[in-house]
DNA sequence: GCTTTACCTAAACATAGGTTGAGGTTTTAG
DNA sequence: CTAAAACCTCAACCTATGTTTAGGTAAAGC
């Protein structure tokens, strides 16, 4: 009810929101086209925001800091009942969800690091056998889950794989 | 000497390189415009590559997997004496260098994770005080060194920072 | 010798996440 | 009331990392 016909609550102009949220006005326009935030118009066609847009922007920025793309953020926000601005509880759920993705990214990078460790000693960089960039290697499908976590022996396999190919 | 006037070594066409390195032909053209690899031309103006281009591409791909940008890769490759194709030793040095950058990224993400941990319990997301996206927060200058590593107490500060601002 | 395959260049397109500029309107301060 | 500041839309531009397309040439197979 409060969302559809806002009435006497104080409204923020785009410039005020930009200042308080520390983003450019153009960014707010951009977010609006992406469906991340919404605004109402005054009689002169200028944007007016409810104050909770600030919290919404905060969540967006937090998500970005965690390496979540805007489209994913939009999806997650869209799954809130009535697409409401996240409450404290909502934020807890969302951030836990994003945290899992962050954990995956960290784990991915740590596996790459481990592989490189092996490859430094080896030095082969063989297109055919080096786990460092073999097409069907541990990190093949970077985005779908922790699949590549399951074969730590590949990092060790790098130890002696020098070949004459290149 | 071997680099400037290549003579009777076997040369690879762009298609052969693409196949063996598992990249698209267009990617090789693109890398060439970026100065990452080089080629010579035959009498019919077609590209011909020395075999060591494969190792160079391997290093490029390895760097990318570590999250290093092409321009940084180019810089690093350019610092090799005579811009030679990396030897095993060169690769060891470069990968250690890049590994340090990878370590920074991992550490950065782990600090973000820790902060979110604090923010989940807190839920404030205050534009003014929350370490999660405060402009001058721990992670302010993401790209220049491990500056933000030095204040672990900010993550704990997040515990009770709810305010009424938004 | 003819046809198919490979190759050439240049420019446009793609995606993410915005920023900048032009030209015009509204709001606000004095 | 007037001028400046803020706002509006739409389109072009930006970086990074390539891919696609169009129009034309070279090389290789039969």
Automatic annotation (TrEMBL), chains A, B:
Keywords: 2Fe-2S, DNA-binding, Iron, Iron-sulfur, Metal-binding. It holds the Pfam family MerR_1. It comes from the Bacteria. SUPFAM superfamilies: Putative DNA-binding domain. GO terms for molecular function: 2 iron, 2 sulfur cluster binding; DNA binding; DNA-binding transcription factor activity. The keyword Iron applies. Residues 11-79 form the HTH merR-type domain. GO terms for biological process: response to oxidative stress. This is Redox-sensitive transcriptional activator SoxR. It comes from Pseudoalteromonas luteoviolacea (strain 2ta16).
């Amino acid at each position: 009810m409060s969302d559809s016909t806002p009435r006497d609550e104080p409204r923020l102009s785009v410039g005020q929101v930009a200042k308080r949220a520390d983003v450019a006005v153009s960014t707010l326009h951009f977010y609006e086209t992406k469906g991340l935030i919404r605004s109402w118009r005054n009689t002169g066609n200028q944007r007016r925001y409810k104050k909770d847009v600030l919290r919404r922007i905060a969540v967006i920025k937090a998500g970005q800091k965690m390496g979540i793309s805007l489209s994913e953020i939009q999806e997650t926000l869209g799954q809130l009942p009535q697409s409401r601005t996240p409450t404290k509880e909502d934020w807890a759920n969302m951030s836990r969800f994003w945290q899992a993705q962050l954990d995956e990214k960290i784990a991915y990078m740590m596996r790459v690091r481990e592989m490189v460790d092996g490859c430094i000693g080896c030095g082969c960089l063989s297109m055919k056998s080096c786990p460092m960039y073999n097409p069907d290697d541990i990190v093949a499908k970077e985005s779908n889950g922790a699949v590549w976590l399951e074969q730590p022996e590949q990092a060790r396999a790098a130890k002696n794989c020098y070949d004459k190919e290149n």
